[in-house]
Specification:
This protein has about 170 residues and is an all-alpha fold. Helix content is about 75%, strand content about 0%. The chain folds into two domains: about 15-70; about 75-170, no CATH class.
Length: about 170
């Protein structure tokens, strides 16, 4: 590999590169996003250290990995996430239910039927039902924070399956 440094220029040692990585991790530990934003200075850092694109990609993921690692050490993180999931689920069930009912009223006015078992209608009901399952499981004590998070993650799969239902039915009929 050709030397990228001119005569008399400083060549970075392995220890200096490790020190840069440790500095980024320490900054990430402080949870200050403005301090760990590598993007604005990425070109200068990669040029100065002679990094490849792969190494630069790894460098930009270090703050995220440090946030995740040190975030797990926070005792209140689970409770905060649980409150966010609960609030989002309440918001989702309210607006999904209202949207489904309003869609049925619109269908009744437009087509003369409130419900026609269309894949979109079925998907809307699945989303409402899954959000109701999450809330009832949480209220009934069947799941706690972690269980509600797992149900919410599976709820994303239910929501993502709605367009697939329409595509599968269109392909089979």
């Amino acid at each position: 590999m050709a030397d990228v440094h001119g005569p008399g220029e400083h060549q970075d040692t392995r220890a200096e590169r490790i020190l840069v990585v440790v500095g980024i991790v320490v900054l990430a530990f402080n949870l200050r996003p403005a301090a760990v934003s590598v993007g604005p200075v990425l070109a200068e850092v990669t040029a100065e250290l002679g990094m490849s694109s792969s190494a630069a990609g790894l460098l930009t993921t270090l703050p995220v990995l440090a946030f995740a690692t040190f975030g797990m050490l926070d005792n209140n993180l689970g409770k905060d996430l649980s409150r966010m999931i609960y609030g989002t689920t309440c918001f989702a069930i309210l607006f999904s239910f209202v949207g489904t009912v309003l869609g049925g009223i619109w269908a009744d006015q437009s087509w003369g039927r409130f419900w026609g078992w269309d894949p979109k209608e079925n998907g809307a009901v699945l989303i409402v039902l899954w959000n109701a399952i999450i809330l009832h499981a949480r209220w009934g004590g069947l799941v706690r924070e972690f269980g509600a998070a797992q149900l919410a993650i599976f709820g994303n799969a239910v929501t993502a399956a709605v367009p697939l239902e329409k595509a599968v039915l269109a392909a089979t009929y």
